[in-house]
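Quick one: structure tokens for this chain, please?
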Amino acid sequence: GMKVKAIKYQFLQPESIDFVIDTSAENYDLSDHFAPSAGVYTIYISPGVVIVSYDAAWPSFTTGAQASGVSFVIVNRGQILGMGGLGGLAALASTPEIDTKGEDGGTAFEATVDCSIDTSSGLIWAGGGGGGGQNYVNPQGPYSEPIPRSGGTGAQGFAESLGGNNSNGVDYVGAGFAASGGPSGPGAGGFGIGKGGEWGEN
């Protein structure tokens, strides 16, 4: 049978380019570099460029504040990677109603105007959402001890996303944290532990 020894990829550029992004960046705002008058413009992101965020609250790439009537054709040959969300806190006896939800995954690409995106030879991956912390469980019986609870694990994303605080049932002192997530995957979670999401999974 036929054996494939190597595959050569050709990164085709569009015939007309209005602006090129050829340097890796963090929290890239297109309007800080290219903010034209009304019209349709082609933006080319070169191979090897990696655009990221270290905070799930901020998009890795945004088209930013553009004039009315502007739209873009985005030709992405690089990587735009969102940050994974933090794991949620475990609940305590003193705050049983605490919101134990994990943090939402970070946006990779934010379009503030109409955009057509060609990412056939590139990546746009949002961060995963952090796992939820365990709810408080009321001890049963006259001699019951507080029940330890686990925080949610961190999600998959561009950089390390921390797991939430574990609790000993009373406070967080000495209880540690759930597993962190990162580029290779979300933090591992055991039985009943809220596990963070993979790329783009909230």
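Residues 1-10 have pLDDT under 50 and may be disordered.
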